[in-house]
Specification:
It is a single chain. The longest helix has 35 residues. The chain is mainly alpha-helical and 291 residues long. It is built from ten helices and eight strands. Strand 6 and strand 7 form a beta hairpin. The strands form three sheets. A three-stranded antiparallel beta sheet has the order 1-2-3, with no helix packed on it. The protein has a three-stranded mixed beta sheet with strand order 5-7-6. The chain has two domains: 181 residues, no CATH class; 36 residues.
Amino acid sequence: MLWESTWDPANPAQMTVAQLTDGYESRTFMAYTQDHRCARLPMHEFLLGFGYLRPTKSTDCQSPESFATVHAKQFNMSLLATIGGIQIRWIDTLGAHLEFDHRTKTLFLFRFPSFCAANLEKESSGEKWVRGVIHGCTVPAGDPTNWATAEDVTSFLYEVILSYRLLFGLSAKGRQFYRSLRPFSDLPPDQHDPLLGELCSSRTLTTISVDHHEDVFSLVSDFPILHGRFETLQTHLACPKARGLIQLWRDKRSTEAWYTFWAVVLIGGVGLFLSFVQTVLQIMQVLYSVP
């Protein structure tokens, strides 16, 4: 889940990470190879040799753009695909979740949310998170490296789960769009993750508890780590304009503008129809008046 290893016969002494992003320079990985002797390092230092596999909280939370709120009906995967032209690539690398390749308009989405849920179980009291295996990869207290703490990992895992709700589960268009996807088409049935389908295609959840039930999200407070990646998608979605009546009908990025446009179309259409009827009646009147 942190990376997918591969074997390079030309460098047998190197530990190599498979590049899953088709030439895209991922912000998660800074290097794809390490000498095998690096395995003797502490776990967080060894992982840091590949890159920031565990994202940390962004440092630009004070920028005005970071305080934007988004509504699931106005920002979901259906709009990103139909208006923004974005295509999804399902990946097994957790740290690259929600990375976006502008060149190919490809959005990388992690497809095993059960891994996140398994590491987010709470105590019987329901007050504290029980630290999972992945928390063993965090930096110890007082370490100067810019590596994820246990709190960062917990936040990131929860944000990943919440991101499926924003992109798919909390909007009718998002749920409908997910049902057209095949995230596990290259895997046998016993390797499919049923939680992904529940998070993305169901309005209500039964097997997992998510504290956020509203359709409105604050990027900074709800996604303190992933908000930068969402803002990148927001910027991309704001650029293209809807073309054709079908795209105009689906484009609800601005509810007020959507209602205004279609009100004008409706009123204008009714006006044209009445004018046409009036013209026909006048022609018929002239024809009947001719002796």
